[in-house]
Write a structure and sequence with these properties.
Globin-like, mainly alpha, 54% helix, single chain, globular, 0% strand, 252 residues
């Protein structure tokens, strides 16, 4: 795998999850690395060798899990480069994407009712009934700020830094009902508790919007060859984020 990612280390100065979580992320002394050397994998050819992967290690060590995920998906510095290149052109769709995402979540009672519970960091008024909850409600406006920040980070993150993956892992944890942030646990602030089913569906919806935005870029801004690369790169990032959600739900 790309040497830029092979040198990646994680900042584990702050616990990523409360101690009661069965999938707590532990610091690891094992450096992030990859034994894979392929760039264009020919599926008709048998791999030269089979890598050994310790399931317990990638369950408990975030850095080793990221090594496995990025190697499996062949996420390299070229992927990070092409995301950074198309970011300015795609960034303008983020506000509309976030508005559309919440409108989609409001189409179903099981996804809308999640927002009847006070979210971490929000101290404004809450509606008393589901019918009173609107897209202009204070907590939804508050949530949109966070969502826009996450989407922009996907487009602008330094993917050679372990802090990027640690952030995405915390995003996963904070939707499970366990807080990854020490100050929130100390203050007794309740995190989100969203079923993984709806998390996965929402990521799929976001993926469609971002892919469409990339494919609709004018040729003078992004030639077809780079659109193909960008769609693939965004796809890899979102599937890594998906895994960093699911690992805290299923404990795998």
């Amino acid at each position: 795998m790309d040497s830029q990612f092979a040198a990646l280390t994680l900042d584990t100065s702050e616990p990523l999850v409360s101690s009661h979580s069965p999938t707590a992320t532990e610091s690891s002394q094992t450096p992030l690395h990859s034994a894979s050397s392929h760039t264009d994998y020919d599926q008709s050819q048998c791999p030269i060798f089979t890598q050994e992967v310790d399931p317990l290690l990638i369950k408990n060590s975030l850095e080793d899990r990221i090594a496995y995920l990025t190697d499996f998906l062949n996420f390299t510095s070229r992927d990070a480069e092409i995301i950074s290149k198309i970011a300015p052109a795609v960034n303008e769709v983020i506000p509309g994407m976030v508005d559309g995402m919440y409108a989609k979540l409001f189409e179903f009672d099981i996804t809308k009712k999640v927002f009847m519970t006070r979210n971490q960091g929000f101290d404004g008024p809450l509606p008393q009934t589901l019918e009173e909850l609107t897209l202009d409600s204070a907590q939804i406006v508050f949530r949109k700020v966070f969502m826009k920040a996450w989407a922009r980070r996907v487009l602008t993150a330094d993917y050679s830094s372990g802090k990027t993956w640690a952030y995405m892992d915390k995003v996963g944890i904070m939707h499970t009902g366990a807080s990854p942030f020490k100050h929130q646990r100390t203050m007794g602030i309740a995190p989100l508790n969203v079923p993984y089913r709806d998390i996965a569906l929402t990521l799929g919806w976001i993926q469609t919007v971002l892919h469409s935005a990339i494919l609709q870029l004018p040729e003078n801004k992004c030639p077809a060859s780079e659109k193909i690369e960008a769609v693939a790169a965004i796809n890899k990032v979102l599937w890594i984020q998906n895994d960093l959600f699911s690992r805290h739900y299923i404990g795998d």
